[in-house]
From TrEMBL:
<feature type="binding site">
    <location>
        <position position="250"/>
    </location>
    <ligand>
        <name>pyridoxal 5'-phosphate</name>
    </ligand>
</feature>
<dbReference type="GO" id="GO:0034354">
    <property type="term" value="P:'de novo' NAD+ biosynthetic process from L-tryptophan"/>
</dbReference>
<dbReference type="GO" id="GO:0097053">
    <property type="term" value="P:L-kynurenine catabolic process"/>
</dbReference>
<dbReference type="GO" id="GO:0030170">
    <property type="term" value="F:pyridoxal phosphate binding"/>
</dbReference>
<comment type="pathway">
    <text>Cofactor biosynthesis; NAD(+) biosynthesis; quinolinate from L-kynurenine: step 2/3.</text>
</comment>
<comment type="function">
    <text>Catalyzes the cleavage of L-kynurenine (L-Kyn) and L-3-hydroxykynurenine (L-3OHKyn) into anthranilic acid (AA) and 3-hydroxyanthranilic acid (3-OHAA), respectively. Has a preference for the L-3-hydroxy form. Also has cysteine-conjugate-beta-lyase activity.</text>
</comment>
<dbReference type="GO" id="GO:0019805">
    <property type="term" value="P:quinolinate biosynthetic process"/>
</dbReference>
<feature type="binding site">
    <location>
        <begin position="165"/>
        <end position="168"/>
    </location>
    <ligand>
        <name>pyridoxal 5'-phosphate</name>
    </ligand>
</feature>
<keyword id="KW-0662">Pyridine nucleotide biosynthesis</keyword>
<comment type="similarity">
    <text>Belongs to the kynureninase family.</text>
</comment>
<keyword id="KW-0378">Hydrolase</keyword>
<dbReference type="InterPro" id="IPR015421">
    <property type="entry name" value="PyrdxlP-dep_Trfase_major"/>
</dbReference>
<comment type="subunit">
    <text>Homodimer.</text>
</comment>
<feature type="modified residue" description="N6-(pyridoxal phosphate)lysine">
    <location>
        <position position="276"/>
    </location>
</feature>
<feature type="binding site">
    <location>
        <position position="137"/>
    </location>
    <ligand>
        <name>pyridoxal 5'-phosphate</name>
    </ligand>
</feature>
<dbReference type="InterPro" id="IPR015424">
    <property type="entry name" value="PyrdxlP-dep_Trfase"/>
</dbReference>
<comment type="pathway">
    <text>Amino-acid degradation; L-kynurenine degradation; L-alanine and anthranilate from L-kynurenine: step 1/1.</text>
</comment>
């Protein structure tokens, strides 16, 4: 994994407060951190929802013309302003020249996906021949598992984390059923220790060491959708491969959130969606990675016309010339209207760089953590204030930008009050609130305002719903 800053976020906050001669929770700290933020201008590349346009806002509580506090990039990223321009370019091309658009323009429709693959290289840490932009995440996961999961009587299990995202869980179940395997015996799920929310790396490695000879594929998420835990991808990959397992990752919540080095880490395969931190819009174009070491040994189980080499594709002789590596897994032509939003977003990432974004993200989320612990930490037990616990790991190397919060009071009422005040985050499970300050378009002052609005929301919830809390 990459080295992290020497100064921890809490130390930075306290140092800045000392320099400003104010308390670390003072608004001046947030404003100063924003002034020092070299990435602050990137929020201008995005449409940020206004208070007045959100469906649940109470306009008597907000300034309708202010930006909402949007902390839901873990569900859906905001729209880059260039999306409309790029979509209009393709719509105009279609309107004016019809079929000729397949070969003309900066995004010829036949190679539209290939024109932007180079922008993904640094985001996932791979070379272009290892990446394919296609389909949606779960479709790609199925295609990859069809090739990588080849069970034998002795090696037939798939290892995954507890409470994996439902689509991953269902995909694994159906792959096991496809091979006529018993799900309970073949689906090996690692649970956290009793009383803990997240998995310990040593427990994962122990299971791999003890049971690896029976495991065909290890499939983990990069970052757990609920807890926000960032798994140690290189350590899991190394341990799994040492036991003869293929190791793959669902990077839905990791891509565009943390630095990835899939090639250097030797990951066998991976897939991701692009509508969360990659800001490509709902149902955006997914991606897949197949390490170059498998270029000539792993082939797609299902093939289509767009997995055929472009140079001979239009001979139409029905003699497959499969593209080696990831692009051979493509089945159909790229959906150009989905390529456009992803193109607009990836250009922003190219300018900002993942390294700089991750550096800001560590401090931004660390500032959020500091403020929550100050106002709502466990030392507040016994007072009238509700306790807010952070179930996401506290170590910066074990998380991305998301913090998952749980509350000592039912969260649904507080969430209603937050929404009235123009805060956008999302509830997961019975009492979990996912809060994700995204470094591309969120500021330190957003975090400061969130804490203030959270206090107001909790107070209001207690007053209004005290009879049911």
């Amino acid at each position: 994994m990459e080295p992290f800053p020497l100064e921890l976020p809490a130390d930075t906050v306290q140092r800045v407060a000392s320099e400003l001669r104010c308390h670390p929770t003072d608004e001046r700290v947030a404003l100063h951190l924003d002034e020092e933020d070299k990435l602050r201008h990137f929020k201008e590349y995005f449409h940020i929802p206004k208070m007045q346009d959100l469906p649940s806002v109470d306009l008597s509580l907000v300034n309708k013309d202010e930006n909402a506090i949007y902390f839901s990039g873990s569900s859906l990223g905001l729209q880059p302003k260039m999306v409309k321009t790029y979509l209009n370019e393709e719509l105009e091309k279609w309107a004016k020249m019809g079929v000729y658009g397949h070969e003309i323009g900066k995004r010829p429709w036949i190679t539209g996906d290939e024109t932007i693959i180079g922008l993904m290289n640094d985001i996932v840490g791979a070379n272009e021949k290892e990446i394919a932009l296609m389909n949606a995440l779960t479709v790609n996961l199925h295609l990859l598992l069809l090739s990588f999961f080849k069970p034998t009587p002795k090696r037939y299990k798939i290892l995954l984390e507890a409470k994996a995202f439902p689509s991953d869980h269902y995909a694994i179940e159906s792959q096991l059923q496809l091979h006529g395997l018993d799900i309970e015996k073949s689906m090996r799920i690692i649970q956290p220790r009793e009383g803990e929310e997240t998995l310990r790396l040593e427990d994962i490695l122990e299971v791999i060491e003890k049971e690896g000879d029976a495991i065909a594929v290890i499939l983990f998420c990069g970052i757990h959708f609920y807890t926000g835990q960032l798994f140690n991808i290189p350590a899991i990959t190394k341990a799994g491969q040492a036991k003869g397992c293929f190791v793959g990752f669902d990077l839905a919540h990791a891509v565009g959130n943390v630095e990835l080095h899939l090639h250097d880490w030797g990951v066998d395969f991976a897939c991701w969606c692009s509508y969360k931190y990659l800001n490509s819009g709902a149902g955006g174009l997914g991606g897949a990675f197949v390490h170059e070491k498998h270029t000539h040994t792993i082939k797609p189980a299902l093939v289509g016309w767009f997995g055929h080499e472009l140079s001979t594709r239009f001979k139409m002789d029905n003699k497959l010339q499969l593209i080696p590596g990831a692009n051979g897994f493509r089945i159909s032509n790229p959906p150009i209207l989905l390529v456009c939003p992803l193109h607009a977003s990836l250009e922003i990432f190219k300018k900002a760089t993942m390294k700089a974004l991750r550096r800001k993200s560590i401090l931004l989320t660390g500032y959020l953590e500091y403020m929550i612990k100050h106002y709502y930490g466990k030392d507040k037990e016994g007072t009238k204030k509700p306790v807010v616990s952070i179930i996401t790991p506290s170590n910066i190397e074990d998380r991305g930008c998301q913090l998952t919060l749980t509350f000592s009071v039912p969260i649904k009422y507080a969430l209603l009050e937050l929404e009235k005040r123009g805060v956008v985050c999302d509830k997961r499970g019975k009492n979990g609130l996912r809060v994700a300050p995204v470094p591309l378009y969120n500021s330190f002052h957003d975090v400061y305002k969130f804490i203030s609005l959270l206090s107001s929301a909790l107070d209001s919830a207690e007053r209004k719903y005290s009879n049911v809390i």
